[in-house]
Amino acid sequence: MDKKSELCLQIKIVIDYIENNYQSEMKQGVISTILSRYKNALQILKDDKNKDQLNIAGGVMAYLDSYSDYENPLLKEMHQAEELAEKL
What we know:
Helices cover 69% and strands 0% of the residues.
């Protein structure tokens, strides 16, 4: 699997996790911002736009600033996506 496909898959994992576990928080606040950024990133990748437009870096820190839930599996998935985006 190439790096772009791997990143797309990882972004989908994050989006699915948020949509399945944060339904009440998806419309406002940090979860809304993170979800919006990940959806935009996925669209950028699908449309073969400039990878410099990806804006998912810092999502882990933004989440921790709001929730302080260091054991949440979402953090691992977001961290993995951020690392893949850096390598793209």
